[in-house]
Amino acid sequence: VKKKAGKYEKQAKAVKQTAVLGAGIMGGGIAYQSASKGTPILMKDIKEEAIELGLKESRKLFAKQAERGKLTTEQMAEKLTHIRPTLSYGDFGHVDLVVEAVVENPKVKDKVLTEVEGLVAEDTILTSNTSTISITRLAENLKRPENFCGMHFFNPVHRMPLVEVIRGEKTGDAAVAATVAYARAMGKTPIVVNDCPGFLVNRVLFPYFGGFSLLVEQGADFQHIDKVMEKFGWPMGPAYLLDVVGMDTAVHANEVMAEGFPDRMAREGKTAIQVMYENERLGQKNDKGFYAYE
Ligand code: NAD
């Protein structure tokens, strides 16, 4: 499924002004990363609180860099000006590339993507940060599917080097080229992958979460599993990782995976992860998941 990203770069259109839809865990992180590397970004959400949270996180990350002497106070203030928070589509006409990072729900994504396609210039590249939903499927309602591809970041965006650039059936080379170039400008390592539910990384990760969930359902202690996986050499165990990802995102992503691969991913009954979600233990986003947070 892996293709070399380098071959696309010669054809890349310049990406000078970008926008992200959604100011949540991922949207906020994408805005920070773009601003930190000098590409201005509009950050749009439908909730004022989400925008405030997204900005707060960016301020915190820039302040940490200033504390470490990597940025002066002036540089920090300048970088923050690259993030333009908004509740409206007002300035979207001048954007070269949009990253959609709203909730993992195909209906919401369809609505947002068709809305924004109607407002941007004809050659604006649209991308989706979906974790699992097929890019070919999301392109179905678009008028210019050749300008659309996946741009899948990992959480936390500022620390995770990989970005999957996903080529749907109708994605054109120019969209892939611009997205690869933008990922590199953000200091990331892009890989171009073909389209399928879960792409590359989540096809490996979600069966692992499924295995973890089964063990918990059979009575295993989640903290013990985390400790074992850390000793095995992974930077964090599955329970902690699920808290970082968010139980809502994990449940919605797993539904898409189960639909795509019913023989391997569909399960009878409720998983431990679903039970957590139904009990509103979403993870770090609401300070309680497998672990409790302050
Ligand atoms: P989140 O719940 O933290 O944020 C989603 C944001 O979208 C919220 O702020 C919400 O207000 C906003 N939103 C909803 N409808 C909107 C609309 N119409 N216009 C603008 N904003 C809207 O979710 P998240 O974890 O940031 O996930 C966002 C996307 O990124 C999902 O597709 C998810 O699968 C994907 N993703 C998540 C992770 C992760 O670890 N959480 C990793 C990679 C990719």
From TrEMBL:
Residues 18-196 form the 3-hydroxyacyl-CoA dehydrogenase NAD binding domain. It comes from the Bacteria. This is enoyl-CoA hydratase. Residues 198-293 form the 3-hydroxyacyl-CoA dehydrogenase C-terminal domain. Belongs to the enoyl-CoA hydratase/isomerase family.
